[in-house]
Amino acid sequence: MADLLSDTEIAERIPDGWEREGDEIVRTYEFDAYLDASGFLAAAAGVAEDAWHHPEMTVRWGEVEVRLTTHDAGGITDNDVDMAERLNGIYE
Ligand SMILES: C[C@H](O)[C@H](O)[C@H]1CNC2=NC(N)=NC(=O)C2=N1
Q1: What's the ipTM?
Q2: Ligand 1 center to residue 31 CA distance, Å?
Q3: What is the pTM of this model?
């Protein structure tokens, strides 16, 4: 199981566009249309299933809010940082 990251490690490793909120890292991806947002959600779900690390995702008009934490560890681990980087990679 992944180890919890320290506050310093989180600050150093948090990917572009993401912010820390307590035991989660959060990013809201913006889109021109609802179907673009929902398409991103579907692609992100595939990446999450592939990595077996599942974010909380909320689709709204033109945006998808993604929240990551490692439930098994009770906080933020490299699994969250890695997933955030992967999601940044599929966001054109
Ligand atoms: C048994 C355990 O729930 C699984 O190994 C995976 C599933 N997906 C997961 N997703 C997230 N975000 N955190 C987890 O700890 C986690 N654990």
Answers
A1: 0.93
A2: 28
A3: 0.95
